[in-house]
Amino acid sequence: MTLVGIIWADSGLGIPDYKAAERSYQLLAQVTGRAGRGEHSGRVIVQTHQPQHYVIEFARSHAYKELYKQEVVFRDALSYPPFGRLINMRFSGEKEEDVAVTARQSADFFRSFKEKTVEIMGPVPSPLSMIKKRFRWQLLLKSREPERLHRLCELAIMEKRHVCRAGVRMGIDVDPENMM
């Protein structure tokens, strides 16, 4: 393959996931690595709205170590893995109001413990707010102290029937691979 075109190369950078930069880099590096493998040299054309974004720059030069150094700084400052732990609480159901109320009640339940080392973000509708006719909301718990997060999860499981409305499912995803 001698010519590779990448349209909207920065589309993955807007995904609400702490791994968005890493995933975007992986895709760009993989696709650009396909050009010119044979006896003919290759060419890559990249269309982007953010040509100076560090991910685009590092992918251009296949500078994975530099990407790593940048990501480590961001993740440490924001307490994202591997410096902190995350728990994504997902709520789903056929009635949006029931799902929203359950997510809010769960957030209030967690906040009632006043865990100073646990950041509670949300609840908010999930980025993919409906799948298979089920509305989805999520609540993110973050801390540098995993034992605090696990304690809150155990309490949530014990109190699930008091917090969750009928027809609402609650899922607990520890250190989620995907935030969607």
What attributes characterize this protein structure?
four-stranded antiparallel sheet, 2 domains, elongated, Alpha-Beta Plaits, 180 residues
What do these coordinates show?
This protein has two domains: about 5-80, no CATH class; about 85-175, Ribosomal protein S10 (Alpha-Beta Plaits). The two termini are about 35 Å apart. It is an alpha+beta fold and about 180 residues long. The strands form two sheets. A four-stranded antiparallel β-sheet has the order 4-5-3-6. About 40% of the residues lie in helices and about 25% in strands. It is built from six helices and six strands; from the N terminus they run βαβααβαββααβ. Strand 4 (about 120-130) and strand 5 form a beta hairpin. About 25% of the residues are buried.
Mean pLDDT, as a whole number?
Answer: 91
The helix/strand class is alpha+beta
Number of domains: 2
Q: What is the chain-wise order of helices and strands?
A: EHEHHEHEEHHE
Number of strands: 6
Q: Helix content range of the residues, please?
A: 25-40%
CATH architecture of the largest domain, by name, is 2-Layer Sandwich
Strand order of the largest sheet: 4-5-3-6
End-to-end Cα distance: 33 Å
User: What's the main sheet like?
Assistant: 4 strands, antiparallel
Spans with pLDDT under 50 lasting ≥5 residues? none
Keywords: ATP-binding, DNA-binding, Helicase, Hydrolase, Nucleotide-binding
GO molecular function: 3'-5' DNA helicase activity; ATP binding; DNA binding; hydrolase activity
Pfam family, one: PriA_C
Protein name: Replication restart DNA helicase PriA
